[in-house]
Amino acid sequence: MDPKTPLNTCPPPQSATPPPPYDGASSSNPGFCPAAFHERQANRLPGGGMKAASYYEPCSTCGLQCGNLIPGSYKGGWPEWVDPSVNFRWESHVAPKDYDEEKAMGMGMGAGEGKEGRANEELLGCWICWEYEDKWIQPMRYEEWYLHLKTHFKADGYVVCRGVKGAMQRRRNCTFTKCPKIHS
To answer: pLDDT-based confidence at 21, cuts 50/70/90?
Structure first.
């Protein structure tokens, strides 16, 4: 985003063409926490994925605890804003920089070990960029992540598949086999 662009606005759409269809074939993890990547895959299947309360607990793999605050800059100027859901945010988390997957697995480290001083730094990647555009982007702090999503939804033309309560719906709960909308 251009540094001169106010945080509560989105740039105009770059193209009149609609977003590409969902493929879901991406099997490689570009940089998400291994547990977040696994959860994203598990949420595609009926009965898959974690229980809702688990998204509010520290990640069992990297120890990061994702927040659930939605910044006003995401909602601002957007009366019909959509809650992207805490599980989509959890699925988007990136393990802290000092997390060492091989060391953690080889030494049986539990959640929170080896992550001193990083517990509050939540970095998030973008599943829309990865699954729909085959692009890995630099992980962002949550405020920037929400503005990035807002751009996808308001300017790029991506549409959220809403669940019964109005928030983003998990793919496993969608009744359409090939729904082109964004799911958690």
So the answer is: low
